[in-house]
Amino acid sequence: MANTFHLAVPAGDLETTVAFYRDILGCETGNMEAGRWVDINFWGNELTLHQSEERLPSVRHDVDMGAVAVPHFGVHLSESDFEAVKARLDAHNIDYIDPPYRRFIGNEFEQETFFIKDPNGNVMEIKTMVNPEVLFKTA
After folding, report:
1. Do 69 and 47 fall into the same domain?
2. What is the pLDDT, as a whole number, of residue 2?
3. Which distant-in-sequence residues (6+ apart) come within 8 Å of 30 by Cβ?
4. How far apart are CA 132 and CA 77, in angstroms?
5. What is the DSSP string of 9-60?
6. Residue 40: is its pLDDT beyond 60?
7. Per the structure, how many domains does the chain have?
8. CB-based burial of residue 11 (10 Å sphere; 0-12 exposed, 13-18 middle, 19+ buried)?
């Protein structure tokens, strides 16, 4: 668990949001306090969902590929895991905020990415990189 990232977000109705992460995304649940919070194994990172009434506001920021929803969090997956998540989303008829698309085509930072939101409106970006070893290399 060294260098595991932790993020806590408002979940709205906890049972509904946990079901999304567990049953649709395929994440496992971990430690919890019933009715208050649940830890989610978000591909090796600790995502804590808190029962809440509030939702985070979301705006669009211009980046090289267009306007993306901010705030958002996400994960880099292997191509096979990325394709499996897309298949799970499609099987459950989950709408994309931004459907899958490729960016940086033809250079070392090439990647496929998409944006979705959970039942409480938390936005996440799921991506796969052609060359993940260049992640922190300067363009």
Report:
1. no
2. 66
3. 38, 39, 40, 41, 46
4. 9
5. EEEESHHHHHHIIIIIS-PEEEEEETTTEEEEEETTEEEEEEE-S-----EE
6. yes
7. 2
8. buried
Please give the model's pTM, rounded to 2 decimal places.
0.89
Residue with tokens 């939101």: 117
Residue at 40 is within a domain: yes
Same domain membership, residue 130 and residue 65: yes
- Give the CATH number of the domain where residue 19 resides: 3.10.180.10
What's the distance, Cα to Cα, between the start and end of the chain in Å?
A: 30
Cβ neighbors of 64 (< 8 A, separation 6 or more) are: 103
**Cβ proximity of 64 and 53 under 8 Å:** no
Tokens of residue 125, six digits: 């970006």
